[in-house]
Automatic annotation (TrEMBL):
Keywords, sorted A to Z: Oxidoreductase
Family the UniProt entry places it in: Belongs to the short-chain dehydrogenases/reductases (SDR) family.
InterPro entries in the cross-refs: NAD(P)-bd_dom_sf, Sc_DH/Rdtase_CS, SDR_fam
GO MF, any single term: oxidoreductase activity
Protein name per its UniProtKB record: Short-chain dehydrogenase
Length: 251
C-alpha cells in the first residue's frame, strides 16, 4: 500500500533498463519503496540495473517482458501481480527510431509504432485491469511533448506518442473512481542514451528531474505532468500555430 504521502511501497517498471525509470526507482527507494520488479528483455543491462537497486536496499526481481510480444503480456505481468499487490506501475519503454531511415523503411516505422503504442496499449490494459482488481494503485505513463504536435523531424515517433498519450488519458477517465490513478508524464528533450548525439532542444532536462516530477505528481495525485513545467505554455502556443507557420519553424 502507499504511504500517507501517496508514495508506493511496491513498484513495477515496464522497461526495466530505462534511465528515466531507474532514476525514478532510485528516488522512490530513498523514500519508501521496498519491492521493485523490473520487466524487460533478459540482458546483462537488466541484471545490472537490478543489482544497482538491490544495493540501495530494495528487494528487486526481474521478469521477462517484450513490448513487441503482446500475446505474452498477460501471462508475464500476471505472474508479477500474483506475487502481491503493486502500488505503482511505471510504463517507461519506448524507442525513438531513426526518422530519415524509417521513412524509407516502412517496416522499421511500424516497429516504432508497435513498440511505443501497440505494446503500451496491451501492457497498459493488462496492468490497469490488475490494479483495478486489487482496488488501488497508480499507473504512470511516460509520454512526450513530441506527441502534442508532430514535427517534420520526428513525426513517426511523435505520432506514436500522440496515440499513447490519448490512450493514457482515456484510460485515466475510464478508471476514475475505481481507486486507480493514471498519470501522464510529458517530458521534453531528456539527456539519455536514446538522445545521445542528437542536437539538444531548448529546455532540455535530465532523468533525475523527470523522477522528481513523477514523485511530486504522485504526492499530489496529478493527472498530467510536464517536465520542465514551462513546456506546458510553450507547447500550448505551438499547438495553436497555423500549420503554414508551424512547418516553417526550425523544429
Amino acid at each position: 500500500m502507499k504511504d500517507a504521502f501517496g508514495l508506493p511501497q511496491s513498484l513495477l517498471v515496464l522497461g526495466g533498463t530505462s534511465e528515466i525509470a531507474l532514476a525514478t526507482a532510485r528516488r522512490l527507494i530513498a523514500r519508501r519503496t521496498r519491492v521493485v520488479w523490473l520487466a524487460g528483455r533478459p540482458s546483462p543491462a537488466l541484471d545490472e540495473a537490478a543489482g544497482q537497486l538491490r544495493g540501495l536496499g530494495a528487494e528487486v526481481r526481474t521478469v521477462a517482458f517484450d513490448a513487441l510480444d503482446p500475446a505474452a503480456h498477460e501471462d508475464a505481468l500476471g505472474k508479477v501481480f500474483a506475487e502481491g499487490d503493486i502500488d505503482l506501475v511505471l510504463l517507461a519503454f519506448g524507442t525513438l527510431g531513426d526518422q530519415a531511415h524509417d521513412e524509407r523503411d516502412p517496416r522499421a516505422a511500424v516497429r516504432v509504432a508497435q513498440t511505443n503504442y501497440t505494446g503500451a496499449v496491451s501492457a497498459g490494459l493488462v496492468c490497469a485491469g490488475a490494479l483495478q482488481a486489487q482496488g488501488h494503485g497508480s499507473l504512470v505513463v511516460l509520454s512526450s511533448v513530441a506527441g502534442e504536435r508532430a514535427r517534420r523531424a520526428n513525426f513517426i515517433y511523435g505520432s506514436s506518442k500522440a496515440g499513447l498519450d490519448a490512450f493514457a488519458q482515456g484510460l485515466g477517465d475510464a478508471l476514475y473512481g475505481t481507486g486507480v490513478h493514471v498519470m501522464v508524464v510529458r517530458p521534453g528533450f531528456v539527456r539519455t542514451r536514446m538522445t545521445d548525439g542528437l542536437p539538444e532542444a531548448p529546455l532540455a532536462t535530465t532523468p533525475e528531474a523527470v523522477a522528481a516530477a513523477v514523485e511530486l505528481g504522485l504526492r499530489r495525485r496529478t493527472e498530467t505532468v510536464w517536465v520542465p513545467g514551462a513546456l506546458r505554455v510553450v507547447m500550448s502556443a505551438l499547438r495553436h500555430l497555423p500549420r503554414g507557420v508551424f512547418r516553417r519553424l526550425p523544429l
